[in-house]
């Protein structure tokens, strides 16, 4: 543009590209290339002169060739330096301005996509944010990648973005809060794709946001005025179906049934999803037969829907809001309004046709004969009768339509449901009743977000279509238990605001009480016929509504390839659907909380700031617990592993990076000090004795576990080595679960027959200190001695005192100082590249050793879900023929019942009386040595 | 007394002293069927007459009372010296009553756009059919033959719902008054139509016209108006359409499910009320995409009572009806397809569902 003034600055959120990123000539060349590409498609680039200008300026910059991604669509490259992907770059805003902003839609870091579903009562936002990866340039990783042959290449034409998918709701009446939120998070800046770029920028270079719902028309001008963005309207039904398909395919336990107040999550086989009936209950009801992605047909519907409930309810009750009406129904008794079968047949069932006395014969039928006026009836009763009438009717018509088209599943969604337990119960009851138990109504956890998600899916090139279920991790951030995804007020920016927010909640008296013993959560009685019990004094009125977390998209996650049956695999051994279990673990976690906070605060130096964060963490985590006590299904299917991970995530959210940092360090030091003596002791034994001693050692050392309260008490009574020796001496075979002989035979053979050693062993390690150094390392050493490659598998992120993959190389290096076997193997595995060790031996001799490697497992939890492991673990596992799972978290709480394709050894000391009784019918400190040959 | 209709039965054998009464005491209405000898009261020339060439001469009377006013009914019974019949099983009686339609010519008719067309049912091709009895609630009964039937479905949204909700919303004192109101109603004020959502346009992508009701009472969610601001006429009409539409839809889906060729609608809700019939007919037409038609019966509302009555003398009157009706000349002249809408296809066609409506 000719009128452009001198020295334009290319700013991204106020950062000048030139200074911050050292923009080089190749980048500019690429910019120009893209511009050319755009021009050939007939689009005028208004910022042409800006680009040219930058090229001139940039030509003097450092011309690092490899700074520029070789392909124009490469979104993410890890490296020490931030990268800019300038493809599709655009000058935004008025070009008369001095400082036009350049939009970089394909720039990967912190770029968001936003889609909206603007309904009559709620605005639903789905936005995607890509955060910068944590540094990944450690040498260990590089070597592992080389060794395991992990390529960085992408199979897709464009890579899947790693990042987070957020789900947020606003009330439509408070649309300004929504606009503030978008504006403060700059969500509208990235909300464009190549398609909209081509079609819209020719006029004014303005961004486009995908939107659906009636409000997409109504509020288009407001968005234009306030945010300068246009809303690109997407068809509602297209969005609904796209959203439902995505959720059902990408989220493992998205669907659930709801009978008599009980939610049960259903895992749906992706390959067996279609066809299904999607019933969207808005003002009216649409019934859509879905045959596949983008293949659907509206087959039926009914005009008796949410609008009817709300409309009639308002006329009859003078309620101010839909939620108020819904809440009234909780306390209602429909017997005063509805004519029941018993009313007609003198209180008796009409057995002949299978109708019980409490079946509704005629909705509102009783009001005919009563002499009462409208005001003579309780609004609660009217609301309940209305709710039942409409829910039953929808359930019935849906079932008849499913039957008609031979559809196996019926999913219900839409604003009428709102996670309201009684509504779901009545619909479920109707489907169950009319199908004589053969069909089940199912609901979706992200039910309110189908449209917004579908609109989001309509963007091109986000790659989400290709996402697999194992690449998504749902996390529940602080505040989730309070607000359930509904946002009021501006976005919380930084940690400080988050802490203040938590504090404010406490001040307002909304404090969530510590977990209380749980009452059976039956909201309704048999068959949905009884009066729903009211839930007073809970966090929110829609207590049974489900919370929606943030979906973390981690494209690098993979399914552990050695799982014998990935489809049937369930990581959790303990099902928290059992209320007594839930209660027990909640108590354990609550009791442990003060100690954890102390450690966390100490790990950050005990400053005032860390104390404040510690308090906020304690509140936030207690709130999570209270919420889950109130509604165990609130966060989806809940296993112990999820609960333990929630705690770690909550710590990280308040920037406690590693609460056990100093403890781990201290224990590692102490253990490394006694390792040489232990190795000497081991080497003096015969092979057979040594193997037993090694397994004993692993079990004995597993006592060092800060996750176990019993063990924490032990620590105060002696030094590490004392406890270790005492523990090992106590190892009396047979253990509670004792497959040692079978394992020994596999390792050493029987008689003269020498078995072929394992090619590669994966050792899933547990705690820092004695556990890994005195237990697992010597076992690894023994395997190396047999000629077996050893891969130590450790956490990616800290959890309790578990050793992490980042810490292990240093530990191994330290241990290798005293042991040639470990040293040569570590060198061969690339762990000692930089380590300062004595390399007086010839290096050629060393290279003959089998390697010892370290890989990260992809998680930050004391447990492990083997459906979602890091790509490097998955790669390492491909050639493995022995798996050793060690410790309670990975071998008992999770994976105790898992079966693998290769030989598996599960080793753990049970440091919890209840678990010991439940799992192995034993006692605390009993040991498990379970060996399962390849299946 | 709400209704009093008579069917004359001309028998030519020895006059028996019959003054039999049968009752169907429903949640909202009590239906009476009683028989009187020819010598009985003859105020009006009977509107509906059934000729029977043998048996007794007399009249079948049909009367209806509100259940709430059961004392009126008892008074009526005692005043007319009617003997009270025994107990009853409602459902059985409905189907018994239905057998009667075999006897009465031009009992069934279709109703669409305000015009009535009588349909001749071939007796050999009557079964199976769906009988939808709309009383306070709605029963859907699959009838496979005489005495062979099964209640396959139903809905609690029926006549009682219309009347009950209508009473609460409009302060109408009687069902008829409420129905009367609906004549003058306009549902645009209360229902959300497809056009309201799509800016006056059809949602043609899924084949919904702009006047299709998207959400019954959907407009009442607006905060600007209270109950008093809506015309009772409009409320009544919206309510009627909501309920009729729903019954029509569920009935059609059930007929489809069991492969039934005909749906007969009956029960007091219909009440020969043209709007009720029209909306049910429209619903069936809409959901079946024109493949099915709603059919109504002239003696609707009295099926239960009539069936109870029939159960007195199953063997005589049943046989009498079937046997005596057949040879009537009028039968032959009407036994053609002339009463059928071309859309409806042949009565023997296996694909289409024919919905019949019975009423009295």
UniProtKB/TrEMBL annotation, chain A:
One of its GO terms (cellular component) is nucleus. GO terms for biological process: coenzyme A biosynthetic process. It comes from the Eukaryota. Residues 70-81 have a biased composition (Polar residues). The keyword Cell cycle does not apply. InterPro entries: ARMT-1-like_metal-bd_sf, ARMT1-like_metal-bd, At2g17340_3_helix_bundle, ATPase_NBD, PanK_long, Type_II_PanK. Residues 55-83 are annotated as: Disordered. It is an enzyme of class 2 (transferase). Pathway: Cofactor biosynthesis; coenzyme A biosynthesis; CoA from (R)-pantothenate: step 1/5. Its cofactor is Ni(2+); Mn(2+). The keyword Transferase applies. NCBIfam families: panK_eukar (TIGR00555). Catalyzes the phosphorylation of pantothenate the first step in CoA biosynthesis. May play a role in the physiological regulation of the intracellular CoA concentration. Functionally redudant with PANK1. The phosphatase activity shows preference for normal or oxidatively damaged intermediates of 4'-phosphopantetheine, which provides strong indirect evidence that the phosphatase activity pre-empts damage in the CoA pathway. Hydrolyzing excess 4'-phosphopantetheine could constitute a directed overflow mechanism to prevent its oxidation to the S-sulfonate, sulfonate, or other forms. Belongs to the type II pantothenate kinase family. In the C-terminal section; belongs to the damage-control phosphatase family. Phosphopantetheine phosphatase II subfamily. This is Pantothenate kinase 2. It comes from Populus euphratica.
Automatic annotation (TrEMBL), chain B:
It is an enzyme of class 2 (transferase). InterPro entries: ATPase_NBD, Type_II_PanK. GO terms for cellular component: cytosol; nucleus. PANTHER family: PANTOTHENATE KINASE, PANTOTHENATE KINASE 1. Its EC number is 2.7.1.33. The keyword Ribonucleoprotein does not apply. CDD domains: ASKHA_NBD_PanK-II_Pank4 (cd24123). GO terms for molecular function: ATP binding; pantothenate kinase activity. Keywords: ATP-binding, Coenzyme A biosynthesis, Kinase, Nucleotide-binding, Transferase. It catalyses: (R)-pantothenate + ATP = (R)-4'-phosphopantothenate + ADP + H(+). This is pantothenate kinase. Pathway: Cofactor biosynthesis; coenzyme A biosynthesis; CoA from (R)-pantothenate: step 1/5. It comes from Populus euphratica (Euphrates poplar). GO terms for biological process: coenzyme A biosynthetic process. It comes from the Eukaryota. SUPFAM superfamilies: Actin-like ATPase domain.
């Amino acid at each position: 543009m000719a009128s452009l003034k001198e020295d334009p600055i290319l700013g991204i959120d106020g950062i000048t590209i030139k200074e911050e990123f050292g923009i080089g000539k190749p980048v500019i060349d690429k910019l120009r290339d893209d511009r050319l590409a755009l021009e050939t498609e007939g689009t005028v680039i208004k910022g042409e002169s800006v680009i040219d200008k930058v090229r001139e300026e940039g030509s003097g910059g450092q011309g690092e060739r490899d700074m520029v991604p070789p392909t124009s669509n490469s979104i993410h490259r890890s490296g020490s330096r931030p990268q800019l992907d300038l493809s599709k770059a655009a000058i935004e805003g008025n070009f008369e301005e001095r400082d036009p902003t350049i939009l970089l839609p394909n720039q990967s870091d912190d770029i968001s996509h936003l889609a909206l579903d603007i309904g009559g009562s709620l605005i639903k936002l789905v936005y995607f944010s890509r955060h910068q990866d944590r540094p990944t340039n450690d040498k260990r990783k590089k070597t592992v990648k080389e060794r395991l042959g992990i390529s960085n290449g992408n199979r897709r034409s464009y890579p899947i973005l790693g990042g987070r998918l957020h789900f947020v709701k606003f009330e439509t009446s408070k649309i300004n809060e929504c606009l503030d939120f978008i504006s403060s998070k700059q969500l509208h800046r990235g909300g464009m794709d190549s398609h909209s770029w081509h079609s819209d920028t020719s006029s004014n270079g303005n961004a486009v946001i995908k939107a659906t719902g009636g409000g997409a028309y109504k509020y288009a001008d407001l968005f234009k005025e306030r945010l300068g963005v246009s809303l690109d309207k997407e068809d509602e039904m297209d969005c609904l179906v796209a959203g439902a398909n995505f959720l059902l395919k990408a989220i493992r336990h998205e669907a659930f049934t709801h009978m008599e107040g009980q939610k049960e999550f259903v895992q749906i086989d992706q390959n067996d999803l279609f066809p299904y009936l999607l019933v969207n209950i808005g003002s009216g009801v649409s019934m859509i037969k879905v045959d596949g992605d983008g293949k659907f047909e509206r087959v039926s519907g009914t005009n008796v829907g949410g609008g009817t409930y709300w409309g009639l309810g308002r006329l009859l009750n003078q309620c101010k809001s839909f939620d108020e009406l819904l809440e009234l129904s909780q306390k209602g008794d429909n017997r005063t309004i509805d004519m029941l079968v018993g009313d007609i047949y003198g209180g008796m069932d009409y057995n002949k046709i299978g109708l019980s006395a409490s079946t509704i014969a005629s909705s509102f039928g009783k009001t005919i004969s009563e002499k009462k006026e409208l005001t003579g009836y309780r609004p609660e009763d009217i609301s309940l009768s209305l709710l039942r009438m409409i829910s039953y009717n929808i359930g019935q018509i849906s079932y008849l339509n499913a039957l008609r088209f031979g559809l196996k599943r019926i999913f219900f969604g839409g604003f009428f449901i709102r996670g309201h337990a009684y509504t779901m119960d009545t619909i479920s009851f109707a489907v169950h009743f009319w199908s004589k138990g053969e069909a089940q109504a199912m609901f979706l956890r992200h039910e309110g977000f189908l449209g917004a998600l579908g609109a989001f899916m309509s963007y091109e090139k986000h790659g989400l279509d290709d996402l697999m279920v194992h690449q998504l991790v749902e996390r529940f951030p602080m505040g989730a238990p309070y607000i359930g995804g509904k946002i009021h007020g501006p976005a919380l920016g930084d940690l400080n605001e988050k802490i203040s927010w938590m504090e404010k909640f406490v001040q307002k008296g909304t404090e969530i009480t510590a977990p209380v013993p749980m009452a059976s959560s039956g909201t309704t009685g048999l068959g949905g016929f009884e009066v729903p019990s009211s839930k007073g004094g809970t966090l929110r009125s829609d207590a049974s509504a489900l919370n929606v977390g943030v979906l973390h998209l981690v494209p690098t996650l993979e399914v552990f390839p050695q799982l014998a049956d990935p489809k049937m695999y369930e990581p959790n051994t303990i099902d928290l659907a059992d209320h007594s279990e839930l209660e027990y673990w909640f108590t354990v976690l609550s009791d442990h909380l003060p100690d954890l906070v102390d450690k966390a605060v100490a790990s950050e130096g005990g400053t005032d700031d860390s104390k404040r964060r510690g308090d906020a963490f304690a509140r936030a985590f207690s709130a999570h617990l209270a919420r889950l006590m109130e509604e165990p299904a609130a966060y989806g299917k809940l296993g112990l592993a999820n609960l333990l991970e929630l705690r770690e995530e909550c710590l990280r959210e308040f920037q406690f990076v590693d609460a056990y940092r100093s403890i781990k360090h201290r224990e590692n030091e102490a253990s490394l000090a006694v390792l040489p003596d232990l190795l000497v002791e081991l080497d003096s034994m015969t092979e057979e004795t040594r193997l037993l001693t090694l397994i004993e050692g692993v079990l004995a050392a597993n006592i060092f576990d800060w996750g176990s309260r019993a063990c924490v008490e032990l620590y105060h009574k002696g030094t590490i080595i004392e406890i270790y020796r005492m523990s090992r001496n106590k190892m009396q075979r047979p253990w509670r679960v004792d497959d040692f002989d079978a394992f020994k035979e596999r390792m050493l053979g029987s008689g003269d027959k020498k078995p072929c050693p394992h090619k590669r062993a994966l050792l899933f390690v547990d705690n820092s200190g004695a556990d890994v150094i005195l237990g697992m390392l010597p076992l690894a050493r023994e395997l190396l001695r047999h000629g077996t490659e050893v891969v130590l598998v450790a956490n990616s992120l800290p959890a309790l005192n578990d050793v992490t993959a980042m810490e292990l190389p240093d530990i191994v290096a330290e241990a290798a100082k005293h042991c040639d076997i470990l040293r040569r193997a570590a060198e061969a595995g690339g762990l000692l590249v930089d380590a300062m060790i004595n390399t007086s031996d010839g290096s050629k001799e060393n290279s003959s050793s089998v390697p010892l490697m370290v890989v990260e497992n992809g998680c930050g939890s004391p447990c492990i879900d083997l459906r979602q492991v890091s790509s490097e673990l998955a790669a390492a596992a491909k050639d493995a023929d022995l798996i050793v799972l060690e410790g309670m978290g990975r071998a008992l709480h999770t994976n105790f019942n898992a079966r693998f394709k290769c030989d598996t050894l599960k080793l753990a000391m049970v440091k919890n009386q209840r678990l010991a009784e439940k799992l192995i019918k034993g006692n605390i400190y009993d040991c498990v040595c379970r060996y399962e040959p390849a299946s | 007394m709400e209704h009093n209709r008579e069917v004359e039965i001309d028998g030519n054998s020895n006059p028996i002293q019959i003054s039999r009464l049968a009752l169907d005491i429903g949640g909202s209405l009590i239906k009476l069927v009683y028989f009187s000898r020819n010598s009985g009261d003859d105020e009006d020339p009977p509107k509906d007459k059934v000729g029977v060439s043998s048996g007794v001469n007399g009249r079948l009377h049909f009367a209806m009372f509100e259940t709430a006013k059961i004392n009126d009914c008892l008074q009526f019974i005692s005043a007319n010296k009617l003997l009270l019949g025994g107990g009853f099983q409602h459902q059985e009686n409905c189907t018994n009553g239905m057998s009667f339609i075999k006897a009465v010519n031009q009992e069934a008719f279709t109703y669409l756009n305000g015009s009535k067309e009588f349909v001749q049912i071939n007796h050999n091709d009557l079964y199976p059919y769906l009988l939808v009895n709309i009383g306070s609630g709605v029963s859907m009964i699959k009838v496979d033959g005489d005495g062979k039937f099964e209640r396959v479905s139903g809905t609690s949204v029926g006549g009682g719902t219309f009347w009950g909700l209508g009473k609460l919303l409009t302060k109408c004192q009687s069902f008829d008054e409420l129905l009367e109101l609906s004549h003058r109603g306009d549902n645009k004020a209360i229902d959300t139509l497809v056009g309201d959502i799509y800016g006056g346009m059809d949602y043609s992508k899924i084949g919904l016209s702009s006047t299709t009701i998207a959400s019954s009472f959907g407009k009442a969610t607006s905060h600007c108006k209270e109950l008093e601001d809506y015309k009772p006429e409009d409320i009544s009409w919206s309510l009627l359409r909501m309920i009729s539409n729903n019954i029509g839809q569920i009935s059609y889906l059930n007929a489809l499910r069991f492969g039934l060729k005909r749906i007969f609608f009956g029960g007091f809700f219909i009440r020969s009320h043209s709007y009720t019939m029209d909306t049910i007919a429209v619903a069936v037409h809409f959901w079946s995409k024109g493949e099915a038609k709603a059919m109504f019966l002239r003696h609707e509302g009295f099926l239960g009572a009539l069936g109870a009555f029939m159960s007195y003398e199953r063997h005589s009157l049943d046989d009498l009806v079937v046997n005596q009706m057949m040879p009537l000349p009028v039968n032959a002249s009407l036994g053609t397809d002339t009463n059928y809408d071309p859309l409806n296809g042949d009565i023997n066609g296996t694909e289409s569902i024919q919905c019949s409506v019975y009423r009295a």
